[in-house]
Amino acid sequence: MRGTPIAVLAVLVVIILVGPFFAPYSPTAPVGVPFALPGRWPPLGTDDLGRDVLSRLLDGGRPMLLTSLAGAVLGSLIGAVVGLSAALLGARKGRRDRWAEAVVLRPFDAVAALPPMLVLLLVLTSLPARAGIVLAVAVTSAPLSARVLRAAAAPVVARAHVEAAMARGESTAWLLGREVLPLVAGPLAADAGLRLVSAVYLATAAGFLGIGASGSDWGTLIVQALPGAELQPVALAAPVLGVALLTITVNLVADDLIRRSRAVLG
Question: How many Cβ atoms are within 10 Å of 50's Cβ, its own excluded?
């Protein structure tokens, strides 16, 4: 049972990535009357313009997932570098290093106070939709990742083997890569999963506002299905369930990684 969430997530990701190749119809071509109920074919009915809901669902998952994943990975990497570096600075003796640690994290605290949707709208004033979503996710994720990784690394950098490496004069990059990172890999992976969930929500919200990663991403499908929700509820339920299944599964995997990392860190 422990590996079930990971297996479900792997299957779901594969379906999302290869889904466009198995769409029975073009996601942009009408195949029937608008808001037709599910039948033998098309199995999920049609949307507001008579397009196949199943084809659009299969086509829209990949750009949303890849955009969210790119932003989450970028934000986690930036946050990890800043958080781990701040933990090392805090572990060094002397007021100067403690002051440097505070300076490193203060700008991130200011960014973390900004609402994610505000950041998204500001970024999209100068960037295309997909690049803007990636950057907005990275900007809003990095401060949170930095705080999480700084807290996870604080007890690690206080261990004897890390202090011995610092006493030998090892570089910061060497300390992070050889002494600290292997022991915080679990929290890093778990935090990246949580950032991915936030990224999916932000990408879905962007699609809901009409600025999604593609014309058929799941957020766009949701807003297009709202006017006919009473006539064709499946057109609305399908993308909502897709987002819910993806985020819940990622959360379960992140929880499992957190439990394992606690066991490793003792």
Answer: 16
